[in-house]
Design goal:
CATH architecture: Alpha-Beta Barrel
Strand order of the largest sheet: 3-4-5-6-7-8-9-10
CATH superfamily: NADP-dependent oxidoreductase domain
Shape: globular
Order of helices and strands: EEEHHEHEHEHEHEHEHHHEHHH
Distance between the termini: 25 Å
Largest sheet: 8 strands, parallel, barrel
Number of helices: 13
Helix content: 25-40%
Number of domains: 1
Mean pLDDT: 93
């Protein structure tokens, strides 16, 4: 397994990491992703460690805390062999203060996560979304306290826009608080908006991308085809409206290109879609989930080989979409404002 630095930090992370959103399976939304119990979670952790996958990602809201609980049980006895990443900010309870990135909520939710994960520290603690109602000085001073107390090691964000991130980094620099080094971001062959602003920002400011939903919210499994119904087990039946928007025709065009390369390489469509991400700037680790061991083994097969430059160009062309303003305009000034890719 290849290891890469997490942004500008000194921490190395595996190119593939495991997303535990399928653990627990509580509630209609997350049960559509999966419902892995402790016994199966242990087997998946075994497979990951054998392949060199040592970073495991979860969040407090995944199955209402059950994902963290199952992951904590599955990692029991081998905490020293792994890195744990979790997230907080979204509503987690009925209390008026059980939401956001206030000092009250972050301190409380961090303590709760440590108990569910059965650990004394979290390696990468990320804000799951931007809280516009809490001053960034309050947010970052709280994260600074948690780092100084040894409860978290590195900090990151997820689902921030560019100005959210730059405002926060400016505050961190002004007061000497920990800088965000991770951006857990949506990025896939059918969702390349990350390249417009957040990728150049990551290059400039030293944030490594931890890519979530690299198979386009289940659209790049190889089972989504023209003229065919969705497979019975697809999460899209219940969660399509809550996931990233993309037209069916765009998905089909990308899958057509993936099909061609699958014939050339003998690799599966998910393996090719994942491998494409490995070659993109700022990507530190790609988070893969799995309903079962078969899916996990297939995802692990995305490493150890590389797409050719010609195959990368074919996938780039098939997945290209029109950019929003001002990004389409900036493409006319590449002499002094070069794109990252």
């Amino acid at each position: 397994m290849e290891y890469r630095r997490l942004g500008a930090s000194g921490l190395s992370v595996p190119l593939l990491s495991f997303g535990a959103a399928t653990f627990g399976g509580s509630g209609e939304f997350f049960s559509a992703w999966g419902s892995t119990d402790v016994a199966e979670a242990r087997r998946m952790v075994d497979l990951c460690l054998d392949a060199g996958v040592t970073l495991f990602d979860t969040a407090d809201i995944y199955s209402n805390g059950n994902s963290e609980t199952v992951l904590g049980e599955a990692l029991k006895g081998r905490r020293d062999k792994v890195l744990i990443s979790t997230k907080a900010t979204f509503r987690f309870g009925d209390d008026p203060n059980a939401v956001g990135s206030s000092r009250f909520h972050l301190l409380k939710t961090c303590e709760q996560a440590l108990k569910r994960l059965q650990t004394d520290h979290i390696d990468i603690f990320q804000l799951h979304g931007f809280d516009a109602l809490t001053p960034p000085e309050e947010v970052l001073s709280t994260l600074d306290q948690l780092v100084r107390d040894g409860k978290i090691r590195y900090v990151g964000i997820s689902n921030f826009s560019g100005w959210h991130l730059m405002k926060s980094l400016a505050v961190a620099d002004r007061y000497g608080y920990p800088r965000y080094v991770a951006n857990q971001t949506y990025y896939s062959l059918v969702g390349r908006d990350y390249e417009w602003e957040l990728m150049p920002l990551g290059l400039d400011q030293g944030l490594g991308a931890l890519v979530w939903s690299p198979l386009g919210w289940g659209r790049l499994t190889g089972k989504i085809r023209r003229g065919q119904p969705l497979p019975e087990t697809s999460r899209l039946h219940k969660t399509a409206e809550q996931g990233p928007p993309v037209s069916d025709e765009h998905v089909y065009n990308v899958v057509d290109a993936l099909d061609e390369i699958a014939k050339e390489t003998g690799k599966s469509i998910p393996q090719i879609a994942l491998n494409w991400l490995f070659h993109r700037p700022t990507v530190s680790s790609v988070i893969v989930g799995a309903r079962n061991e078969q899916q996990l083994r297939d995802n692990l097969g995305a490493t150890g080989w590389s797409l050719t430059p010609e195959q990368m160009k074919k996938l780039d062309a098939a997945s290209e979409t029109a950019k929003a303003y001002p990004y389409w305009h900036q493409r006319n000034f590449t002499e002094r404002n070069p794109p990252p890719v």
